[in-house]
Design a protein that fits this description.
Elements lengths: L4 E3 L20 E3 L5 H9 L5 E4 L6 H5 L1 E2 L4 E2 L1 H7 L4 E11 L2 E8 H10 L7 E6 L1 H4 L16 H8 L6 E6 L4 E5 L6 E8 L2 E6 L20 H6 L5 E5 L4 E4 L4 E6 L3 E8 L5 H18 L9 H13 L3 H19 L6 E2 L3 E3 L1 H28 L3 H15 L1
Parallel strand pairs: 1-18, 2-3
Antiparallel strand pairs: 3-14, 4-5, 6-7, 6-8, 8-9, 9-16, 10-15, 11-14, 11-16, 12-13, 12-15, 17-18
The structure holds 2-oxoglutaric acid and fe (ii) ion (FE2).
Length: 395
């Protein structure tokens, strides 16, 4: 195991300075020039995008998956290092609802398609591939310290559930349609090969693109964005650069050269309130959809089932996650245990306090906004008890 690194903050106010005007350009900063605390205060907390460079120099995938002389994929090495797993593949030539049609194939077959350069397979995009989860022993990258405070994957990894840590491989021209990330989470995406073009919008700008029914477009272009007077960033992301996509920022991504990337979706104490508000919005939507059944027995439970099916998370799931994160931090605060993210990053004492305060704030907000529903779902007492526990601990 590599040496332990502390991720820590000094006392930082919970509310960031309001962002006055979005910057004209997204900043580019070498990772080594930014401390954890600087990243925390300047980007995570204010929910502001940034590109970090020289992120992947020491990564196995950066050094070995690419043939740096021929500027191509090192297929022979990849075939040897990674078994012939079944992988998820999107067909960028076919739309399926607001995404691309998805299928599966064998990894080595995908590599054959990559090499043969045939038109018929040129639009296949290997994406959302849980390679790390499938081969936990294969250490092909390391999560950069800036992105280490990650409650979502901390919970999922410890519970043996599917994580949000992915690999993407796509030929030139493959792309991901216009979207904001799952649960309004943050994402980071590090390109290890080729170039990606990002069209990135700060929150609310996407509203200008809604049609009369309130739907957002599947595909956007610079012409469309200019026509609708949308403020956006056009970013060319090169190999070795990581982009930090803040919560709720819509984006469309195109591989303008053959490209490979590693990315995570995650949230933590800085955006957990946004995660809660998004979950609540999704719940409002579900309730609206089945409003005509509101007199039926078990209506609240039924809404939760629908929320889980349509959104991927329900109130119970979110609360279980919060409580798990809370318990870990309570033990660490009492010096009974340490919190280590990604087998390397140890959470510092101030950070633990920050996390606990963020959990308390979101519990208070949940009780205020959805107290009655929480009672009906028998979740209220547990929530309240953790709010009280944090209060006692910190006073
Ligand atoms: O690289 C891509 O195609 C999409 C990546 C993305 O949407 C993300 O990292 O949030
Ligand atoms: Fe995304």
């Amino acid at each position: 195991m590599s040496t332990e690194l502390e991720i820590e903050i000094s006392s930082i106010p919970l509310a960031p300075d309001p962002v006055v005007e979005p910057p004209p350009e997204i900043e580019r900063i070498p990772l080594a020039d930014l401390s954890y605390e600087q990243f925390f205060a300047r980007y995570l907390l204010p929910n502001k995008a940034v590109i970090l460079s020289s992120v992947a120099d020491s990564w196995e995938c950066f050094r070995r998956w690419i043939n740096h002389d021929s500027k191509g994929l090192n297929g022979a090495y990849l075939r040897e290092a990674i078994p012939n797993l079944t992988v998820p593949v999107a067909d960028c030539g076919k739309q399926y609802y607001n995404s691309h049609e998805k299928t599966e194939m064998k990894f080595h077959e995908f590599l054959d398609c990559w090499d043969c350069r045939e038109e018929s397979t040129s639009k296949l995009y290997l994406k959302d591939w849980h390679l790390r989860e499938m081969l936990p022993e294969y250490e092909f990258y390391e999560t950069p310290y800036c992105f280490a405070s990650d409650w979502l994957n901390e919970y999922l990894l410890d519970h043996g559930e599917d994580d949000y840590m992915f690999v993407y491989l796509g030929r030139e021209g493959t792309w991901t349609s216009f979207h904001a990330d799952v649960f309004s989470s943050y994402s980071w995406s590090t390109n290890i090969f080729g170039v990606k073009k990002w069209l990135l919008l700060a929150p609310k700008e996407e509203q200008k693109l809604k049609d009369s029914l309130g739907n957002l477009p599947f595909r956007i272009s610079e012409e469309l964005l200019d026509e609708k007077e949308v403020k956006y960033y056009n970013i060319l992301q090169k190999a070795g650069e990581a982009i930090f996509v803040p919560s709720g920022w819509y984006h469309q991504v195109q591989n303008v050269e053959d490209a490979i990337s590693v990315n995570h979706n995650w949230f933590n104490g800085c955006n957990v309130k946004t995660i809660w508000l998004s979950l609540n919005d999704a719940l409002v939507q579900v309730i609206k959809e089945i409003d005509d059944c509101k007199d039926m027995e078990n209506f609240d439970e039924h809404c939760q089932l629908m929320l889980k099916a349509s959104y991927g998370m329900d109130l119970n799931g979110f609360i279980k996650m919060l409580i798990y994160i809370c318990k870990n931090r309570v033990s660490a605060y009492r010096d009974e245990a340490k919190i280590i993210h990604f087998e390397r990053y140890r959470l510092g004492k101030n950070h633990i306090v920050f996390d606990l305060k963020a959990i308390r704030d979101v519990l208070i907000s949940m009780i205020e906004m959805r107290g009655e529903l929480l009672r009906s779902l028998n979740l209220f007492d547990e929530l309240k008890s953790y709010e009280t526990l944090i209060d006692k601990l910190l006073t």
